[in-house]
Amino acid sequence: MKGIFVIADGLGGRPTDLNGNTCLEAAETPYLDALATRGALGLVDPIGPGIRPGSDTAHLSLLGYDPFKVYTGRGVFECLGMGMDVQAGDICFRANFASVESSAEGLRLLDRRAGRISEGQNELEDALRALSVPGAEIEFLASTQHRGALRIRGEGLSRFIGETDPHEVGTVLLASRPTQDVPGADKTADIVNQMTQQSFEILRDLPLNKKRVAAGQLPANVLLVRGAANCPVLPSIESVIGARGAVIAGGALYRGVAEACGMDYIPVQGATGGLDTNIKAKAAAILKTLEDYDYVFCHLKGTDNAGHDKNAADKKAFIERMDSELFKVLIERVDWGRTHLAFTGDHCTPIDYGDHTVDPVPVLFVGPNIPRDPGTTFGERVAGQGGLGRFSGRVLPMLLGYCNWAPKFGS
Ligand code: ZN
Ligand code: ZN
Question: How far, in Å, from the CA of 210 to the mean position of ligand 2?
């Protein structure tokens, strides 16, 4: 038996999305509706009722972990998702290029995203290889636009330190400080502060930045860090359930979470982690990957991006594109006699609110071991009447359980 687990980030919505319908309900989705007709529906609270999920914690929960026990922060997933080697004791951060100017009080923030820089990041990354703080080995990798990931390796470091991003333009960068009185926090905060100052000294006179300023653009002249995290202790899904899995995802965070859970990463050309992602290529990669693995986890991010942008048309269009470019292909090409599929979101990102909410998310299971329920479309209200009822997290263990992979608890 093979398993396919698809998450559309921020899939769920509210009746305020589009004239009384959610984007999912309003979207024309004949293939999802066909799957709903064959399968069973329900509502899932990604972490638990009343808990407003982040994407990282929600994914951990849907994959079968208790985020309250294992979550250490986002930075580590960003680093893993960039393909960095992360070991016990390393401290990882989300990092981003920003624009600052020198002032008597310190480095004053001009823009948190360095004018949403879209080219030349490799030059910045190369220059930052010169970062050198005694007692620490520092690695930075740029990802998309202003974003990147930073790893600090050294003896006796702690993740209990604050960020350097003041979040408010016109204010000076924050000095990182210990957030708990624990060994290593002072030392780690000190390393981060030295690194921040050094990043400014390295980047400010870079030819790229001189060119940007001459062209009227903001310079990318400092590195801000947040989300300090160390490597979480996660028993792999394979060690717990026995099934071998792989991840297909454009966004580094999702690749990072899945790799931390023991999945192999399958790169896909054109997978951008955005609305423009190549969904057909992802569908083809799912089919190919299933030849070698027990299950595949595929993440799509466009739904959440459109939700944050409060753009109902984009969210609906992305759902329709998933329907015709992914679910159509799966219906036609998967061996449904021996394959189970689960499809859900990691939280709702309603249009009106523009951010993640506590609402449960519709979930769909299809496969030979799954009893059909009466639902014939896939949407929030129909899913609320589905045979799966309402449950919390653990969608992947459920899916693998239908594939007969679950270990028995007790005798
Ligand atoms: Zn999410
Ligand atoms: Zn989001």
Answer: 34
Query: Token pair 């030059």 is at which residue?
Result: 123
Residues 200 and 184 in one domain: yes
Q: How far is the CA of 214 from the centre of ligand 2 (A)?
A: 35
Ligand closest to the CA atom of residue 12: 1
Identify any residues that bridge with 139 across adjacent strands, giving them in sequence order: 151
Range(s) of the domain holding residue 121: 80-229
Same domain, 284 and 333: yes
Cα–Cα distance between 308 and 361 in angstroms, integer?
17
Q: What is the whole-number distance in angstroms between the Cα of residue 272 and the centre of ligand 1?
A: 15
Q: How far apart are CA 394 and CA 411, in angstroms?
A: 22
Residues of the chain falling short of pLDDT 50: none
Out of 229, 244, 271, a domain closes at 229
Task: Give me ligand 2 centre to Cα 128, in Å.
Answer: 29
Which pTM does this prediction carry? 0.92
∠ at Cα 305 (318, 385), nearest 5°? 60
